[in-house]
Specification:
The chain is an alpha/beta fold. It has one domain (2-320): TIM Barrel, CATH 3.20.20.100. It has 12 helices and 8 strands. It has helices spanning 14-17, 24-36, 52-60, 90-104, 123-135, 149-162, 185-192, 235-252, 256-265, 280-287, 296-306, 314-317; strands spanning 2-5, 41-43, 70-75, 109-114, 139-145, 167-173, 195-199, 270-275. The chain has an 8-stranded parallel beta barrel, surrounded by 6 helices. Helix 8 crosses helix 9. The longest helix is centred in the C-terminal third of the chain and has 18 residues, at 235-252. The protein is globular and about 50 Å long.
Length: 331
Amino acid sequence: MLCFGTATFGGGNEFFRAWGETDVAGAKRLIDICMGAGVNFFDTADVYSEGLSEEILGQAIRHLPRESLLISTKATFPFGDGPNHAGSSRAHLTRQIEGSLKRLKTEYIDVYHMHGFDALTPMEETLYTLDGFVRAGKVRYIAASNFSGWHLQKSLDISERYGWARYVAHQVYYSLIGRDYEWELMPQAYAEGLGALLWSPLGWGRLTGKIRRGQPLPAVSRLHKAAEGGPVVADEYLYKVVDALDAVAAETGKNVPQVALNWLLRKPTVASVIIGARTEQQLRDNLATASFTLTSAQVARLDEASAPPAAYPYWHQRQFQNLNPLPPSYR
């Protein structure tokens, strides 16, 4: 399943202008293209362009029946000044859910994410507050984002202990050049029945096909700032992965980003891959990701090219897969 990410809507500050500045009219066109392709899941967050992304999304979907859409938004990161305008406390979340509902012009949110882990607020306070939103009909499902394994597992255990709504999904960074998700979070999701929603599936823009060995970056590209706020990726490792992507793309007749995205769709626990686009052509290209299926051999070739060295204790555990079986590598 594909999800359309709307962080490109608004361009309300310098950081988000680098992603895109889609206005209401442009957003409506992109959303209609998604709906025509069978993609009805849209992801945003309160902090995207300081609420402007939510506002534009809310206006751009007004012509559609609300029940035909799935809307995901998030809270936790600072939205205003001072300690009471950040985190996953009852005070902050209560303020943010009302703001998101107003900006989105909706009575409920389908999936409400904690955008990051708040170590300063008791988990019980956060989960009790979220359970209240579900019981009040303001939220259908709750989810986490960017949690570590123990953050997520403790949250699930608390919800089970008290009979509260539990996290049903985890929005995570996962790409062919960012496979840390596989070490602990994927086996956990597999065991606990959690779906993964993937952000930055093209590795911070590095897997768009614009980076190749021996070639300069385009003169105008956000790739010049690709490492800002994101993971460091060694050049030789990236080139090795892109070489493998080029080979599979030639076999399939698809382009590099389509192959990179399709590889993710073949992975266990992946419920949705969040795609973005600034132009209609970019969106149509990304939507075509779901129109074909890589073979298990092609996935294995990409697995081999992108395999990173595992951190401890995972490299040790993988020596004893009879005791610690991994989730399947292909579905």
